[in-house]
Each structure stands twice: as C-alpha cells, then as structure tokens.
Specification:
mainly alpha; Rossmann fold; Arc Repressor Mutant, subunit A; 2 domains
Length: about 130
C-alpha cells in the first residue's frame, strides 16, 4: 500500500480503469480493517497481511487463481465490541483514499514537503488532506 511515488490504492484504481482482467492479490503490512475494503472497492481480488502465516498467503493465492475473492473477515465485518473503536472506524470510512495515505505517511513521521514530493502533490494539497 505504501509504495513510493504512487500509493497502492491509486495503482489498483489505474489497473481497474484499464479494464484488463487482472487478478490482484494485495500482500501488505497495513491493517485490513482500514485498507481491506478499500482494496476490494479498487478492484483487488484478495488481501493478505504480512503478519499472517505463510499458509494464509498460499490459501489466498489458490482462492484467487480459482476465481474467488479472498479478504480477511475483519476487513469486511469490523468488530463492534468496542463502541469507541467502531466510531473511529466509521470516521476512517469517511476519509478518501488519498487522505488516508497522507495520514499514514504523517504517522510515519514524514513532513508535508516529503509527502508532496513522494505523491506528486503540491504542499497545499497535502495540507488540505491533512486537515
């Protein structure tokens, strides 16, 4: 998801816009609760966290090659056990993909200027996303 110069969600959207019959399986360290459904909406066929066992990746590959989608359950049905956590997840759903990627880069300690350069945006646009 955090590839340099262009975020993974944008890459997915571009592949999807091309109309080619690609099957894309996301392997990432990012939280499936925040990114899983966004990847699905952007055209991915599956999503696996790097923290999972290797068997999870193998299962995902087999499922996608067989024509199925493969997404973790927490990406599709976030747990509602904690009302505060659920409210936070709902807020994240209102943030668009670019805003979320900027937020993630801020959380990694990047400056506006670094983010703007890496995402091919102006500093002003990054500031707007930050707000």
């Amino acid at each position: 998801m955090s590839i340099p110069k262009l975020d993974g969600l944008e890459v997915l959207a571009r592949f999807n816009a091309m109309g080619s019959p690609l099957k894309i399986l996301i392997l990432t360290a990012q939280c499936p609760t925040l990114f899983g459904i966004r990847c699905m909406q952007s055209g991915a066929s599956g999503y696996v966290c790097k923290q999972e066992d290797l068997s999870e990746l193998v299962s995902a590959i087999k499922a996608v090659l067989s024509g199925y989608n493969y997404f973790p359950s927490q990406a599709l049905n976030p747990v509602r056990s904690d009302d505060i956590r659920f409210a936070e997840l709902e807020l994240f759903k209102s943030v668009n993909d670019r805003e979320l990627m900027v937020l993630q880069l801020f959380a990694q300690g990047r400056t506006n200027k670094e983010i703007a350069k890496g995402m091919f945006l102006s500093n002003k646009t990054v500031s707007t996303y930050k707000q």
